[in-house]
Amino acid sequence: MKKIFNRRGEGYVDMCVGVIVFVMILVIAINIFAFITLRVEMDQIADELIECATYNGSFGTQYTQRTAQLKEQYFDFTPSYGADKYYNAAYHRVQLGNTMYVTVTVKTDIRGLGVFKIPVTLTVTRSGLSQRYWK
Question: Is residue 54 part of a domain?
């Protein structure tokens, strides 16, 4: 102990700086873990939304209801959707075999840095083929 704490206090300053660096690394690790878990949940949401859309062959009422259910179950997110070619644009119908895509976007901040807030936008996109034939 005498070697760590000498009379001039140099060891004490080194130890305080070491603790501060350790805490900052811990905060960064917690933020990375939070982003990884958020990304996994966003992947699940996007998979469920594209599955609903491709099964129904449209972005209609079933898609809207499923989006509302997932917002209640998980968290608030911004969904967007589209297709390469619509069979009927008024009803957002997509013909069998055409590509559909869903994008889930979440805006969040990096936490734990005190006064500073760094905004981060995470985006996940999934695509699939329509499984419904429209006459």
Answer: yes
pLDDT tens profile 93-116: 999 989 999 999 999 988 776 677
Which residues form the domain of 19?
Answer: 10-129
Task: Assess if residue 134 is contained within a domain.
Answer: no
pTM over 0.85: no
The three-state (H, E, C) secondary structure of the chain, written as one string: CCCCCCCCCHHHHHHHHHHHHHHHHHHHHHHHHHHHHHHHHHHHHHHHHHHHHHHHCECCHHHHHHHHHHHHHCCCCEEEEEECCCCECCCCECCCCCEEEEEEEEEEEECCCCCCCEEEEEEEEEEEECCCCCC
Is 114 domain-assigned?
A: yes
State how many domains the chain has: 1
